[in-house]
Amino acid sequence: MVQLYNLHPFGSQRVVPCRQEPARFCCGRDVLFVAGTAASCRVEVFALREQGRCDALGSFATLGPVLRMAHSQAGDYLVTIEEKSKATYLRAYMNWRCMSAGSSRVCVRMVGHKMEESYSETLKEQMSVVEMPLSDPPLCVSCCPVNGDLLVGCKNKLVMFCLKYLFINQNLTVLDFERSLILHFDNVIPTEVAFCARHIAVTTELDVLILKLELVQQNEGPSTRTLQLELDEFVVCQKPVELLGEESKLCEIPITLESTDLPTEDTKCFQVRYLLFRRFTPDQSPFGFCEETKLHSVQLLPVYQTGSSVTDHEETENKRELLSLFCFFSLPHVGYVYSVGKLVELISTYQYSEKSEQAVLTPQFLHVITSENLQCFTVRCSAAAARDEDPYIDTTIKACPPIALDVCALRMQLFIGPRAICHFKNHIILLTKADMEDITERRKPTRRMLSRKDDCIKSRANSESEPGWNLYIINTVSTIQLYREMVDYSRTYENVKTESCIHLLSEAHLLVRAAIMDPHFLNSDEKEELLRVFRESCAALGDCYSRFDTEDYHLALPYYRMSGLSMAEVLKRLVSEGDEIQTYERGFLFYLTHCLNEDVNEELSKESANQVLQIFYLADPAQLPHILCSPCMRNVCPLRAVKYLQKVEKIMPSVVLTLTKAFMALKTGDLAMYEHEMDSYKETVLACGFIGQPKLLRHYKEEIVVPTEFAVHLKEMQPGLLVAATVALHENSKMELEEADTFFKILCSNSEHAVPQLLVDFWEALLVVCSQEETLQELLLRLTSQYVWRISKQQFPETKPLRTTEDLINSCNHFGLIFPWVTSIMSVESPSDKSYHEDISKLQSLLCSQSINIASALPVLEPLTEAGNVGLTIHVICNTRLGKYEEAIDQLLKRCPDAVVLYAQHELKDNNRAVWWNKLLPELFKRTRLTGNDCPVLISSLKETLSVVAVELELSDFLSLLPEDGTAAFFLPHLLHCSQRKLLT
Predict the structure, then answer these.
(1) InterPro entries, alphabetically (predicted)?
(2) Integer Cα distance of 975 and 971 in angstroms
């Protein structure tokens, strides 16, 4: 469907002062080439200036009448297909600009001809004509806009010439071509070809085939088997058909590649990938059977990466990064635009009101000529390219009008006898040829919208001899001017046709977006103005999706964000002052809700915040508790907020609403109301209530977590609830571990490295409920580190811990019962140890459990190596957990022998039982012998050990352990014990 508007994309026009009747023309970088009709055999060159001014640069002769012509921006050369003596020739005109300086020297050479040194000085002062012989007559030609390579269509084949830069000397580089590749077809006579970035579009009268040449590894090489389909794979397409992507291989057009390069290390090998095949039939027309149903105007349109630098020099020109590629072709009454870059798909279909003669596609418009009209249609290339550049553009952050948006005709401008058209920057070049009766009509006064300049009219003062043709340069108006007109036009639909208003504003937005994606944008004088207009268009679309009840109401959010408008500015645009019965559409509420729920660094004024409160109370009261917790609403009137919350509570009570009322009561200083609200639920329910709205406790400022006044109050009055709520947030993925660290450090006004007791309380509480192993080990290490730091630095916690060691042991498996031998060691504790008893016992409890990874905890425990009995317990626990029992026994015998037997009784069991007689007994023998009777503890331990060993070992094994110098009296009781055990068994 094509929507029709009556806008003015065309500005003033000028007539090109051609000396002869034009037959062919094309545009270069800043020039217009015009080839005359058969009798002239010349090409006139005109410089295109601002506002469509046109100055003659000169002319040069051709071999014969020009049948086809094209200009390449890369290399700045003109290629022609010319006819002479019923033969056709392919010629390229290089260095043609020298003729405008008055030089008439011309050098004609064959392609690949080696430049002689004698010509080197004169080459830069003369035009060079390169003739490219072909085995078959050339039918059509196309230049690649990216690299300047040339593609020639002949019967049953396409020939590719690569543009080469030949370095003659420091001051002279000469252009030449090298025939590098031939694509052979079966039964294909191309009528038109288009070539861009190794993409090829070729049309016959009713077929379109789009291909891509892909580089392959040299060792693979192009094989006929991979490039030519087997006959039994073909699907003979006798009806209209469209084959996209991989399916297009099923067409009946096999291709064989023939490389004509001389093989070198840099030789490129190609294979063909089919992208699109479409076949039409003569009767495929909405206007019924038409004998002249033929394809025309095939074109490949490149769109480059935004921000790609562009200059006029060939070397930097090739650095532009291709983003998207589009292909246009047309039947007499229907035109098609396909995306053929990353994805092959039909973008738009254009229905013409009458038979078209020719069309040209630009990033902003499609211009079509019919028998008496120049028509301008919108295009969707910028919408598709924007999505290629940013696949995530359709989010809550960014948006772009859809590709499937209906196209529209902006203008149908009357002309007499349009015949051919081409496009250059913001100019349209239009050739008109009128019959004699049309000329007679033209002499009568007309209401032509476009005016011919007086200086051009005077050159044809003799109306009797006025020819029946004109070559016009029509200025298209600036993007900004047309944008303004489209916005003004859209206002006529605001209260009548919502979708038409949005559609026209979307067209205006795409128009500006296409201008910004133009490679010349960075160097444009209108750059800042275009960016400003782009933001303005986003704001206008945001207004539409906010004001109107549309299915796509959610787009208000990304468009407003792209506009750069603040929330306060949006409110001013949409909310009437003092209007309490104003209705608010879904898009506006969606925008406000998202902005308020996200941490936007914008603090609304008291008036604006109260406006927002009023809006949600009327439109969506369920959102009030969440809206009031937003940092943007800091200045809202708390008394008014409580009043509204009380009304909502009667209908929709909730824990979050109660907490929000308590929050507002704190802001007003009404502690009685605060306590009343907080007493409405049990503490566990209140803790879970914070999950429903974490912003009651914290929000963000420049991505840094900031505690609220509510959190500050809870820290002083109900620290247990604050810790429980924070644990609930963490366990429900509403607060990360690192975020909680920052939260408590800021809340307790601690330095960046100091750990407040409330954070330790949080870690301990989280350890009780934590189930993730990675988080569990992190918490165990953090707690261990903090306990060690306090013990080693003799640092008291600044607040009383919420849980004792006994509480943690009873509620958490990760805190274990402290071993009896540890208690024994600690019974002989120093006075300083008593001051940190709670931290010491918590640390010992953690190490006595089976949860902590002792190996990873060793570096953290290092500061306690010399910390008296505490350090000893840590050493022995760690060695025991690591299976180093003998080292543990050595440490105990050296520093606390009283506990060695208790340790052995607790630890040396089962598989470790042999340590009793292999390690402990020999060590006691040795130490007792050295000390004699001066150490009763050792003697007592030895007796206990002998009692255990005597029970465990055979008599002979026990005797072998006894020292040779021992007295029998000492060992007799144990020997007797062994003998009795033997008799019993």
Answers:
(1) HPS3, HPS3_C, HPS3_N
(2) 6
Other CB atoms within 10 Å distance of the CB of residue 406: 15
d(CA 543, CA 556): 7
Average pLDDT (776-793) is: 92
Count of beta carbons in the 10 Å neighbourhood of residue 447: 5
Burial state string for 654-683 with b = 16 or more CB within 10 A and e = fewer than 16 = ebbbbbbbbbbbbbeebeebbeebbeeeee
Q: Is the pLDDT of residue 451 over 50?
A: no
| pLDDT tens readout for residues 344-400 | 999 999 999 889 999 999 999 999 999 899 999 999 999 999 999 998 899 999 999
The three-state secondary structure class of 71 is: strand
Specify the amino acid at residue 559.
Y
Instruction: Determine if residue 880 is left, alpha or beta; phi over 0 gives left, psi from -120 to 50 gives alpha, anything else beta.
Output: alpha
Element spanning 93, H or E: strand 87-94
Q: How far apart are CA 704 and CA 180, in angstroms?
A: 60
Question: How far is residue 480's CA from residue 534's CA, in Å, rounded to a whole number?
Answer: 10
Query: What is the per-residue pLDDT for 340?
Result: 93
Beta bridge partners of 256: 184
Contact 585, 618 (CB under 8 A): no
Please give the Cα distance from 402 to 394 (Å, whole number). Answer: 9
Which residue in 74, 235, 101, 219 sits closest to 161, CA to CA?
Answer: 74
- 126: exposed, middle or buried (C-beta count within 10 Å: 0-12, 13-18, 19+)? middle
Radius of gyration of the chain (CA): 44
pLDDT in tens, 902-949: 988 898 888 888 887 778 888 887 887 777 666 788 878 877 777 777
Span 620-677, pLDDT tens digits: 999 999 999 999 999 999 999 999 999 999 999 999 999 999 999 999 999 999 999 9
**Distance from C-alpha of 273 to C-alpha of 173, rounded to nearest angstrom:** 35
Tokens describing residue 167: 């370095």
* Domain spans in the chain, listed from the N-terminal domain onward: 566-680
The closest alpha carbon to 756, from 703, 719, 717, 718, belongs to 719
Cβ atoms 62, 41 nearer than 8 A: yes
**814 in Cβ contact with 767 (< 8 Å):** yes
pLDDT in tens, 541-583: 999 999 888 899 999 999 999 999 999 999 999 987 655 557 8
**Angle of the 773-793 helix axis to the 757-769 helix axis, nearest 10:** 150
Residue 350: C-alpha distances to residues 73, 328, 365, 384 (Å):
29, 11, 12, 17
pLDDT of residue 980: 64
Mean pLDDT over all residues of the chain? 85
Let me know how long the chain is.
985
- Its sign, for the CA torsion 437, 438, 443, 447, is positive
Cα 175 from chain centre: 40
